[in-house]
Amino acid sequence: MSDQKKEGQVDEGKGRVKEAAGTLTGDDDMKSKGKADQAGGKAKQTVGDAADKVGDAIGDAADKAKKATS
User: Domain ranges in the chain?
Assistant: First the structure.
């Protein structure tokens, strides 16, 4: 799992806490910030997933090239 994906999960969790705190206290600004943090966290996770897939594909291609030249 990439660092970016982990960071996205943390951000999403923080956002959920902020949103819940905003809901409980009636603070619409905090609630909105929490939703924004969640969206940002999900975006980071998506980028992290893509980076992981690209890295895996490069590794697979390198393995195949290595086997083909052996």
Answer: 3-69
Tens of pLDDT, residues 9-31: 999 999 999 999 999 999 999 99
Tokens 């030249």 locate to 69
For 13-32, b/e burial (b = at least 16 CB within 10 A) is ebbeebbeebeeeeeeebbe
The one-letter amino acid at 26 = G
Per DSSP, the residues of 17-68 read HHHHHHHHHT-HHHHHHHHHHHHHHHHHHHHHHHHHHHHHHHHHHHHHHHHH
**Per-residue pLDDT reduced to its tens digit, 37-51:** 999 999 999 999 999
